[in-house]
């Protein structure tokens, strides 16, 4: 029975594309574990129940250091993809995450956590650059969106696993757990072929043909090789200054600015501070029906559900639909969150408000995973031609690191100076602006080849 299923699966011409997606999913699972680390252990530091002491200011920096690491991670990954290829950079990221977990096992003071969180942020952002390029290069247009979203589900699943085990194990044991999927990812990735684009850029044309056939056994090899060689020839003939000039062409400049704005909205519609401070938020919300440490599981569990729903519909829905549903729903959830804290402040019985907090916070996880998180990453692999892709993605991801740092750091700052209800209402307004921006500016990329997308952008 098992052999029959394996034989049937291997007869499917694009099966290796799915294997590649699962390998990347393991990598993003590890990144999700590192994100899930924040909520339980930040709560321990804030409550004073931590392995070593930390001030409120130090805790804020521990939370934000991950985001600061994203900026050099984006730059190094862009350079690495250009010269080493996306697969090798993904493997390098895996090795960096091994170092992160090992250092986490040895951590005994706040400066150690600064270093580990910085390394983790750099590695995670490098992944954000590499995997859309890698999967975009090897996947067929008819399944590209689904392959991307399947891989991205690893992030939310890893976060959920982290939130599940975090309250019950030490930071050291948590790091040992993180080593296992990291090793699995490295083992899988080492066995996969390089992207045909990278192989052609190194003039390994026979290997490029084998790579094309490995990832799609029914591919028209001659046609694919001709197209890839044309892209690579143009790319290799360009100097860095030429890339900057091409990036400044109206179509590319507009696409870059467009993606920067989508990245801004993805970082400032509440997902970041909620992922970091959710257990602390639950405590301030006077949650008693379930424990504060259980609330992150509810939110992340619904996020996993949303991620798998998107896997089913990613290549059936327009990106605009995903974005509008996601940010519209998140905006409603943040409005309800603000109402919850407002009612608490005017003296309403906390017990009568439990349902409002659980419902709004829980469903927010589902909405974020439907579009706010995946859509910018899907667009990263679709909007730019081969000649400027790594440069444009580096710029967008660097902005993502800056926006992510500001969203987390400003959250704690706003909580200290204004009523918490107004913080969530501000986030709700940003979500509404994200919906409007998506309706007006979202490029139609569903079901189109990368060449077709570039042609349409140039015409505009």
TrEMBL record:
<protein>
    <submittedName>
        <fullName>Facilitated trehalose transporter Tret1</fullName>
    </submittedName>
</protein>
<feature type="transmembrane region" description="Helical">
    <location>
        <begin position="259"/>
        <end position="278"/>
    </location>
</feature>
<keyword id="KW-0812">Transmembrane</keyword>
<dbReference type="GO" id="GO:0022857">
    <property type="term" value="F:transmembrane transporter activity"/>
</dbReference>
<keyword id="KW-0472">Membrane</keyword>
<feature type="transmembrane region" description="Helical">
    <location>
        <begin position="391"/>
        <end position="410"/>
    </location>
</feature>
<feature type="transmembrane region" description="Helical">
    <location>
        <begin position="12"/>
        <end position="39"/>
    </location>
</feature>
<feature type="transmembrane region" description="Helical">
    <location>
        <begin position="422"/>
        <end position="440"/>
    </location>
</feature>
<dbReference type="InterPro" id="IPR005828">
    <property type="entry name" value="MFS_sugar_transport-like"/>
</dbReference>
<feature type="transmembrane region" description="Helical">
    <location>
        <begin position="355"/>
        <end position="379"/>
    </location>
</feature>
<feature type="transmembrane region" description="Helical">
    <location>
        <begin position="321"/>
        <end position="343"/>
    </location>
</feature>
<dbReference type="InterPro" id="IPR050549">
    <property type="entry name" value="MFS_Trehalose_Transporter"/>
</dbReference>
<feature type="transmembrane region" description="Helical">
    <location>
        <begin position="290"/>
        <end position="314"/>
    </location>
</feature>
<dbReference type="Pfam" id="PF00083">
    <property type="entry name" value="Sugar_tr"/>
</dbReference>
<feature type="domain" description="Major facilitator superfamily (MFS) profile">
    <location>
        <begin position="16"/>
        <end position="446"/>
    </location>
</feature>
<dbReference type="GO" id="GO:0005886">
    <property type="term" value="C:plasma membrane"/>
</dbReference>
<keyword id="KW-1133">Transmembrane helix</keyword>
<feature type="transmembrane region" description="Helical">
    <location>
        <begin position="147"/>
        <end position="167"/>
    </location>
</feature>
<feature type="transmembrane region" description="Helical">
    <location>
        <begin position="173"/>
        <end position="192"/>
    </location>
</feature>
<dbReference type="InterPro" id="IPR036259">
    <property type="entry name" value="MFS_trans_sf"/>
</dbReference>
<feature type="transmembrane region" description="Helical">
    <location>
        <begin position="90"/>
        <end position="108"/>
    </location>
</feature>
<dbReference type="InterPro" id="IPR020846">
    <property type="entry name" value="MFS_dom"/>
</dbReference>
């Amino acid at each position: 029975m098992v052999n029959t299923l394996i034989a049937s699966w291997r007869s499917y011409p694009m099966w290796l594309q799915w294997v590649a997606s699962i390998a990347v999913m393991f990598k993003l699972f590890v990144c999700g574990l590192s994100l899930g680390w924040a909520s339980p252990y930040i709560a321990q530091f804030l409550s004073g129940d931590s392995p070593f002491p930390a001030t409120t200011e130090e805790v804020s920096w521990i939370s934000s250091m991950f985001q600061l690491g994203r900026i050099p991670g984006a730059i190094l990954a862009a350079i690495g993809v250009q010269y080493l290829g996306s697969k090798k950079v993904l493997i390098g990221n895996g090795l960096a995450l091994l170092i992160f977990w090992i250092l986490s096992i040895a951590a005994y003071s706040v400066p150690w956590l600064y270093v580990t969180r910085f390394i983790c942020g750099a590695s995670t952002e490098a992944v954000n650059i590499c995997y859309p390029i890698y999967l975009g290069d090897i996947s067929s247009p008819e399944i590209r969106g689904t392959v991307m979203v399947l891989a991205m589900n690893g992030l939310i699943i890893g976060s959920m696993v982290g939130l599940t085990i975090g309250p019950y194990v030490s930071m050291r044991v948590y790091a040992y757990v993180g080593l296992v999927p990291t090793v699995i990812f490295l083992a899988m990735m080492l066995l996969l072929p390089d992207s045909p684009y990278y192989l052609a850029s190194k003039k390994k044309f026979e290997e490029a043909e084998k790579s094309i056939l490995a990832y799609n056994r029914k591919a028209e090899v001659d046609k694919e090789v001709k197209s890839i060689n044309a892209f690579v020839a143009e790319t290799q003939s360009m100097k860095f200054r030429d890339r900057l000039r091409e990036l400044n062409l109206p179509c590319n400049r507009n696409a870059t600015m467009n993606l920067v704005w989508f990245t801004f909205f993805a970082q400032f519609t509440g997902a970041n501070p909620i992922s970091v401070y959710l257990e602390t938020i639950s405590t301030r919300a006077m949650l008693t029906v379930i424990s504060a440490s259980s609330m992150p599981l509810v939110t992340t569990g619904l996020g996993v559900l949303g991620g798998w729903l998107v896997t089913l519909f990613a290549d059936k829905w327009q990106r605009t639909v995903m974005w509008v549903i996601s940010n519209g729903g998140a905006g409603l959830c943040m409005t309800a969150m603000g109402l919850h804290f407002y009612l608490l402040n005017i003296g309403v019985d906390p017990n009568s408000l439990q349902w409002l907090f659980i419902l709004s916070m829980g469903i927010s996880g589902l909405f974020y995973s439907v579009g706010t998180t995946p859509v910018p990453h899907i667009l990263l692999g679709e909007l730019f031609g081969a000649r400027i892709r790594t440069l444009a993605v580096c710029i967008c991801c660097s902005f993502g690191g800056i926006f992510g740092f500001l969203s987390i750091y400003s959250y704690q700052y706003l909580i200290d100076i204004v009523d918490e209800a107004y913080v969530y209402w501000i986030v709700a307004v940003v979500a509404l602006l994200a919906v409007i921006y998506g309706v007006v500016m979202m490029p139609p990329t569903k079901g189109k080849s990368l060449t077709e997308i570039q042609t349409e952008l140039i015409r505009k």
